[in-house]
């Protein structure tokens, strides 16, 4: 009888071990599903390296594209009350134009995304008076009136390139095939077939 008791105990232990194994496998499946859904985003979020802004020589943060001062065209400078050679960031130009449009109540009442150009704006944007436009088109008009410092320096003519020395000029085909006096003539090698 002892033998049958020990066999049943072993069978029960094996059954419990198998049940425990199945329970652990189910738990792992659930964890895997959770990780596939939410864990990856958490891992990406907490392992992402933060961006570092570069600084200029003064230790200040480097200015991004919109906050870099640009040269303003004469018509826009007179409209904004600036000196012709004064530089101002693009964001400030947009703020001043937006304030002007709102102060003069030029926005369309039914759709605030649109506004109508009065005489002064039409002169600046080189559009007919009464033209209905939107904020995006205003930025397109401004791109013609704002000149970045890089574009200005690129537009200046560079010094003409130096003429190549006489020895570096390309030789004609006849000169290239002519034998050079210092070199011995090349021998042709006959190949046997």
Structure description:
The chain is mainly alpha-helical and 193 residues long. Among the domains are: 8-47; 69-154, MDM2. Helices cover 50% and strands 8% of the residues. The chain contains 7 helices and 5 strands, in the order αβαβαβαβαβαα. It has helices spanning 2-47, 74-80, 90-103, 119-125, 135-145, 149-155, 173-177; strands at 69-72, 87-89, 114-116, 132-134, 146-147. The strands form 2 sheets. Strands 2-1-5 form a 3-stranded antiparallel sheet. Strands 3-4 form a two-stranded antiparallel ribbon. The longest helix has 46 residues, at 2-47. The radius of gyration is 39 Å and the shape is flat. The mean pLDDT is 78.
Radius of gyration: 39 Å
CATH class of the domain at 69-154: Mainly Alpha
Reported by name, the CATH topology of the domain at 69-154 is: MDM2
Q: Compute the separation of the termini in Å.
A: 98 Å
Strand content: 5-15%
Any idea what the CATH superfamily of the domain at 69-154 is called?
Answer: SWIB/MDM2 domain
- Written as H for each helix and E for each strand, in order along the chain, the element string is HEHEHEHEHEHH
Largest beta-sheet characterization:
3 strands, antiparallel
The total strand number stands at: 5
> Which architecture of the domain at 69-154 does the CATH hierarchy give at level 2?
Orthogonal Bundle
Return residue spans where pLDDT drops below 50 for at least 5 consecutive residues.
Answer: none
- How is the largest sheet built, in terms of strand order? 2-1-5
Number of helices, where a helix is a run of at least 4 consecutive DSSP H or I residues: 7
């Amino acid at each position: 009888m002892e033998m049958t008791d020990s066999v049943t105990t072993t069978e029960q232990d094996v059954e419990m071990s198998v049940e425990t194994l199945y329970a652990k496998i189910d738990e792992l499946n659930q964890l895997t599903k959770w990780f596939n859904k939410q864990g990856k985003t958490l891992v990406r979020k907490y392992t992402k390296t933060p961006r570092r802004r570069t600084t200029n020589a003064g230790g200040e943060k480097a200015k991004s594209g919109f906050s870099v001062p640009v040269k303003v065209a004469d018509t826009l400078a007179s409209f904004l009350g600036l000196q012709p050679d004064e530089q101002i960031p693009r964001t400030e130009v947009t703020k001043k134009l937006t304030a002007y449009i709102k102060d003069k109540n030029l926005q369309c009442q039914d759709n605030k995304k649109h506004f109508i150009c009065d005489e002064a704006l039409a002169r600046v944007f080189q559009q007919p008076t009464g033209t209905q436009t939107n904020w995006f088109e205003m930025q397109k008009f401004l791109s013609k009136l704002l000149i970045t410092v890089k574009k200005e320096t690129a537009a200046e003519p560079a010094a003409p390139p130096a003429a190549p020395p006489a020895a570096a000029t390309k030789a004609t085909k006849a000169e290239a095939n002519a034998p050079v006096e210092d070199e011995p003539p090349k021998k042709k090698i006959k190949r046997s077939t």
